[in-house]
Amino acid sequence: MNHYGTMKVNAQGHLEIGGVDTVDLAARYGTPLYVYDVALIRQRARAFKEAFQNLGVKSRVAYASKAFSSIAMLQLANEEGLSLDVVSGGELYTAMAAGFPAEKIHFHGNNKSREELEMALDANIGCIVVDNFYELGMLENLCAARNRKIRVLLRVTPGIEAHTHDYILTGQEDSKFGFDLQNGQAETALKQALDSKWLKVHGLHCHIGSQIFETAGFVLAAQKIMEKLDKWHKLYGYFPQVLNLGGGFGIRYTSEDNPLPPGYYVTEIVKEVKHQVNMRRLPMPEIWIEPGRSLVGEAGTTLYSVGSSKEVPNVRKYIAVDGGMIDNIRPALYDAKYEAVLANRPLAKCEETVSIAGKCCESGDMLIWDLPLPKAGSDDLLAVFCTGAYGYSMANNYNRIPRPPVVFVENGKDELVVKRETYEDLIRNDLHLRVPLAE
Ligand SMILES: Cc1ncc(COP(=O)(O)O)c(C=O)c1O
């Protein structure tokens, strides 16, 4: 069995997380249920932060809240001294409701609306990551109308596509995000922002991909950006206070994944930036990163009840659970792989290979293909590992199925932090048909 964080098998032979029996959690909160190991989230946050501290570099570790946003989660991030990356008015609203310090929030997005930018300005957030010329113009006008300045980071695309095990160098990046570094867009954007009375160019940002298991892509991105910064320093006398190198640090979804420790990514990134600035006689910028998945992914486990099963002779056996693509759309969307055990008997011998189906009316609603399991029936609970990132945050109400609750566990205690949706919640915004529409 894969072990994450505080997971263990207790004296009853059940899977335990954070000192709490998962069978007990399922009985009290029902299934499906998202369970988060708070100690593991804290451990990850501290590992990133301490790596920077040990290197004596000014830094910010911002939690990319798109991975899992809820009031309690953002309060936990704040407790751990993280900054925050939001990408929508809704994520910003959640951050404000959580009492997250506005100065430590930065706002991403390739199509922020006027209302979202106004909301960010009203909330006095730390900075806005400007993605394109449309936004640059709109932000400038909004600031002029309010007679106020705002710090910005410019999001640049350095022409590197980092994938899980490799990276591809592209002269120009085919991405909907950011100002291209190679074709001159980034330089034009910088000049425009430097000329603005209202925008203070605090730094540059780039994000090269997700679920990355090597440091080469980050190192290359730092090199490409520093080359341009050297040039811009000479031409315009500008050097950024901040260099934000994004998120994307890989995690262990299955035993085939071998992620690096958080501190290793940080060390290699800092080493390269230091080398670049020393070589070019430039000042050392603050380094910011934005991990999402690597802070919360492995900390999340989803508990399901086992329901129906179907044997297709000589083909496969399907076992259905009471959730699926509503609470975890990643297998259907990205062919994402997961591992699972029976929470009520995780050490039982595997006797067959089965495929775990969701309950949605959609053939593609499969959670795991070809999973070794003991013979399972309706008394069993399935625990799917590593669902903490982009699980709840991508959850939906397909087939009008209510979204599951979220429980935090730590030191033998559990706390409900997101309630289960009800059928009433599902129809809250529905209006009755009043008159025949033709009249
Ligand atoms: C700009 C930016 N920063 C950070 C992240 C977080 O990535 P991850 O959760 O893989 O760390 C993303 C993910 O899409 C992103 O687009």
Question: Explain this structure to me?
Answer:
This protein has two domains: 8-30 and 299-426, Lyase, Ornithine Decarboxylase, Chain A, domain 1, CATH 2.40.37.10; 38-296, Alanine racemase (TIM Barrel). Helix content is 30%, strand content 25%. The chain has twelve helices and 23 strands. It has helices at 22-29, 38-55, 71-79, 89-97, 114-122, 133-146, 185-195, 216-236, 262-280, 293-296, 330-334, 423-427, and strands at residues 8-9, 15-17, 20-21, 33-37, 59-64, 83-86, 105-107, 127-130, 150-157, 160-162, 167-169, 179-180, 199-205, 242-244, 286-289, 300-312, 316-321, 340-342, 352-357, 366-373, 381-385, 406-410, 413-418. Strands 4, 16, 17, 18, 19, 20, 21, 22 and 23 form a nine-stranded mixed sheet that branches. An eight-stranded parallel β-barrel has the order 5-6-7-8-9-13-14-15, surrounded by six helices. A three-stranded antiparallel sheet has the order 1-2-3. Helix 5 (114-122) packs across helix 6 (133-146) and helix 8 (216-236) runs parallel beside helix 9. The structure holds pyridoxal-5'-phosphate. Residues 64, 67, 85, 108, 207, 210, 246-249, 290-294, 389 line the site of pyridoxal-5'-phosphate.
